[in-house]
Specification:
Blueprint (H helix, E strand, L loop, with lengths): L1 E6 L2 E4 L4 E9 L6 E7 L6 E6 L6 E3 L7 E6 L4 E6 L8 E8 L13 E2 L3 E6 L1
Parallel strand pairs: 2-11
Antiparallel strand pairs: 1-3, 3-8, 4-5, 4-9, 5-6, 7-8, 9-10, 9-11
Length: about 120
Amino acid sequence: QVQLVESGGGLVQAGVSLRLSCAASGRTFSNYAMGWFRQAPGKEREFVAAISRRGRNTAYADSVKGRFTISRDNAKNTLYLQMNSLKPEDTAVYYCAASQRVVVTTYSYDYDYWGQGTQVTVSS
């Protein structure tokens, strides 16, 4: 199994940048494709971004394309989400997740392990 811990969330103003991190421990980090999801109060959890095991392939939700960048450092067992030009509608709890699938996937049911989440609040 793998344990995931998110960090880097906080309260920021619209238009600024923020970088989230997800530290992994347990089984070899590079064996997992990784993803970021988010959930706002009263709404369903939605896909944000995903990255393949070696970091060669990525996928993004249309709502964040061009603003967010997903990356990973397998030597440090860490996943990142660089968030630029933040908007109030980006406010949510952000979760990182690990998948044993060999290809990038946007579906939450393909992910086997989840972190506890980190709160991101963007004020206007």
